[in-house]
Design goal:
Blueprint (H helix, E strand, L loop, with lengths): L1 H34 L2 E13 L5 E12 L1 E10 L5 E9 L4 E2 L1 E2 L14 E7 L2 E11 L2 E11 L2 E3 L3 E9 L6 E9 L10 E7 L8 E7 L2 E9 L5 E8 L5 H11 L1 H25 L20 H9 L6 H11 L3 E6 L3 H26 L8 H21 L2 H5 L3 E6 L10 H11 L4 E3 H6 L2 H26 L2 E3 L1 H23 L13 H21 L3 E2 L1 H23 L6 H14 L2 H6 L6 E2 L4 E2 L10 E2 L1 H26 L14 E2 L3 E3 L1
């Protein structure tokens, strides 16, 4: 009995467990089924009113059938065949209350956002998005907007070729479209309507008709997801004013047009301001040869006066100037064994390549088929020759020379400008030797420190030139401040256009055209500000600049006139200035007939070494050019390394302007 009783209780428990599990499963399935969401369009009714000025006013009546809970509707309109979409509004058809506009997209589940809409342009489309609360119901909204640039103008008629939609992801039961012209078409005048849909369907499922002389009607039934519906309306010329299109286009694109004119005006103003303040009636107006450096300015300062900037030639020229004045010794650094091997490995393939090409060409007869190849070889040989000539020799062409700078008397500071003292401290620090080779191999941290020091030195040189010469109406200190102001202005401009809701006093103008206008206005202000605060020489400064150009003219033409006062001291003294102006070879050529002792401050190889005998200025020029280019390259190398770390035409659905999709979520 006891065993039977226990068995009954066990079976009863199993039964209850199974029944309970089944019940829970049913409840969960019912809940899951109840949570399934879907929607479709019961009806989409579109009214298109064509205006005399070629714009079209569109209203869409969209009726949704919701199964489940939804809070967001959306609609996008492609812009690829129209100019723009304006005057967008959304109205709740059940209450007749317009939805309020938001300048940004909102969180759809927040009840405070229901009854609002927003619009924006992105991805070549105008997007409309509105927020609401709807559950297991039918809901209707009106979407209103104006289209610009949708009319096509042809020789015998005008046309609207318009996609009602093309990308809806759910079915649409019925579609009704009515097109209204601004006035009646005269009897006998052209007035036609056509409708296209993507699927092959019975004619009853897509039809068009002319209701009267100014109204056309289109219908379609059971539109499938992603199916396009396109309507065509054609009418007699003269119903719309084609000339008004250009007026409307100007109004539509006012931001771009006005912005372009503002920027253009600012550029014209800036150029005129520059011309009348820096060129017109400035200085004496003539350049007369000068036989000595005006005001005895040192090379780097002279470059600032003449070029209003510091180039890579400033520091090599300064070193040569310091060497001539006895502060520095320059020694050519002999290459390591591996550098010689590297040169050989570069030259050998190049020579072999040229040899093979020459052998290939001249192995047979020379004819028109071999001439192009011969031309290519000659170009290669000429290019190699020019590189070698510019570098002074083959070694300099393949492997740039390196140099060792030695400070002769660290305690000797008399006669040095402040920037020259600073430059020597940057190069040598607490030591007496600086190597371009070692700088190239230095760690990035050291290169970065060197780069920062040179950058600070440039600013110091600008200020020192400005103070010593008193040649500027607007100095470099003012010019350098403008950079910070320009950066701040750009940041403010970005904030204004990216976060317009924070600037309610200009919010109505923040759209595509408004953004173009504000960006152009900011750019114009920056252009004018930049021109007004650009470093500018005063009257005396312009005269000083002309005198320095006269000194450059002397360096370029001294050889031509064989000046009688030319001697080795003059050659060395003016050599740094020739480097600044890029005429060191011309200056050296002036002394080609004069035997001069090798400079005591330069230690080269062979005939250029100290004690190696006499040389001419022309023979010294290649080695000098090599030093200038090599030292400039060394500095540039350290800098770069430091930073490393629509119309109609044809027929078919989806071929016109407009279209796009929509939906709910």
């Amino acid at each position: 009995m006891v065993e039977g009783f226990l068995l009954q209780r066990f079976l009863k428990s199993i039964y209850l467990l199974i029944a309970g599990s089944f019940l829970v499963l049913c409840v969960l399935s019912s809940t899951a089924f109840g949570q399934t969401r879907s929607y479709q369009y019961d009806d989409i009714t579109v009214g298109i009113h064509i205006n005399k000025d070629t714009t079209i006013d569109v209203y869409e009546r969209q009726t949704f059938d919701f199964q489940g809970e939804y809070h967001q509707g959306w609609r996008d309109i492609p812009l690829d065949k129209i100019d723009s979409v304006t005057n967008i509004s959304v109205i709740d058809a059940d209450t007749g209350i317009p939805l309020s506009y938001s300048w940004k997209r909102l969180e759809k589940t927040d009840p405070q956002n229901w009854g609002k809409f927003t619009s924006w342009t992105e991805g070549g489309k105008t997007n409309i998005e509105w927020y609401y609360s709807a559950k297991d119901t039918k809901k209707t909204w009106f979407l209103n907007y104006t289209i610009h640039g949708a009319i096509g103008f042809y020789q015998e008629y005008d046309e609207l070729y318009w996609n009602i939609f093309s990308d809806y992801t759910v079915p649409v039961k019925t579609v009704s479209v009515e097109v209204t012209l601004p006035e009646e078409v005269p009897e006998g005048g052209k007035l036609e309507s056509r409708v296209y849909r993507a699927r092959n369907t019975p004619w009853l499922l897509a039809a068009s008709s002319v209701i009267d002389r100014k109204t056309l009607h289109y219908t379609a039934l059971d539109m499938a997801p992603q199916e396009a519906l396109t309507i065509v309306a054609q009418w007699e010329k003269g119903i719309v004013d084609k000339s008004a299109y250009w007026t409307d286009s100007i109004k539509t694109h006012w931001g771009y047009i006005v912005g372009f004119l503002i920027v253009l005006a600012s550029l014209v103003f800036g150029l005129l301001h520059w011309f009348f303040t820096e060129k017109y009636h400035q200085g004496r107006g003539t350049v007369i040869p000068q036989y000595e450096p005006p005001e005895n300015l040192h090379p780097a300062m002279a470059e600032v006066i003449v070029k209003e900037r510091i180039t890579d030639k400033a520091w090599p020229a300064t070193i040569v100037d310091l060497a001539v004045r006895g502060y520095v010794q320059i020694t050519e650094d002999k290459p390591y064994f591996m550098e010689v091997i590297q040169k050989f490995l570069i030259i050998l393939p190049l020579g072999f390549f040229i040899f093979v090409l020459v052998l290939f060409i001249f192995a047979g007869s020379l004819n028109w088929t071999t001439l192009p190849m011969l031309s290519i070889i000659l170009v290669i040989i000429l290019a190699v020759y020019r590189v070698i000539r510019a570098s002074g020799n083959m070694k300099g062409a393949i492997i740039p020379k390196n140099y060792i700078l030695e400070r002769t008397a660290p305690d000797k500071l008399d006669g040095l400008e402040d920037y020259e003292k600073k430059f020597l401290n940057i190069l040598f620090g607490g030591g007496r030797v600086f190597s371009t080779k070692e700088m190239k191999k230095a760690r990035n941290a050291k290169k970065q420190e060197f780069y920062k020091s040179i950058s600070k030195l440039k600013r110091k040189l600008y200020k020192e030139t400005e103070a010593d010469t008193e040649a500027y109406t607007v100095g470099f200190s003012v010019e350098q401040k403008r950079v910070g102001i320009i950066v701040i202005a750009i940041i403010i401009g970005i904030v204004v256009v990216q976060f317009p809701q924070s600037f309610s006093f200009i919010s109505p103008y923040i759209n595509d055209q408004g953004i173009a206008f504000w960006i152009s206005l900011i750019l114009a202000v920056l252009i004018i500000y930049s021109f007004l605060h650009d470093a500018r020489l005063n009257k005396e400064g312009q005269i000083l600049r002309e005198e320095w150009l006269g000194f450059k003219l002397y360096l370029e033409t001294a050889e031509k006139y064989r000046m009688q006062n030319l001697n080795p001291d003059v050659f060395e003294k003016y050599l740094p200035y020739a480097i600044i102006f890029g005429v060191e070879k011309k200056w050296a050529k002036t002394f080609e007939s004069i035997n001069m002792p090798a400079p005591s401050w330069y230690h080269g190889a062979g005939a250029y070494a100290v004690g190696g005998g006499n040389l001419s200025g022309q023979s010294f020029s290649p080695s000098l050019s090599s030093f200038t280019s090599s030292f400039s390259a060394s500095l540039a190398s350290s800098f770069s390394s430091a930073g490393s770390g629509g119309a109609g035409g044809g027929g078919g659905a989806g071929g016109g302007g407009g279209g796009g999709g929509g939906g709910a979520s």
